[in-house]
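It is worth pausing here to work through a concrete case rather than discussing structure prediction in the abstract. The textbook approach is simple: state the sequence, then state the predicted structure, then interpret. We follow exactly that order.
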Amino acid sequence: MRGMDGAHDDDRCGLCGQVRDDQHDRQHEESQVGEGRRVEYVVVALRGALAHYQAADDPSRTFKTGADVLAQGLGIDQADLLGRHYTCWVTPTEYGVIQNGFEVA
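Step two, the predicted structure:
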């Protein structure tokens, strides 16, 4: 999917939602690696084996993941994902983000 600025979702930072480029990478200091925060998401679409989700506070930040993996992490049936709000701990790393501690909101 493309955001309003034309960037692919895969080109966006999973923590701040900004387009990743050299300037973005310089702004995220190494001191941020390992820090994190709890983020709320909502599942907005199921397409095949993928669940598309977006940040609840910023619909322009859309991502995708395996629907089965997300359902398992939340402890719910895959059929109950659509429209589901959930939170997880998002931690930036050198090469992206790690999401864990999934909870149904």
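Step three, interpretation. The radius of gyration is 14 Å. Residues 1-5 have pLDDT under 50 and may be disordered.
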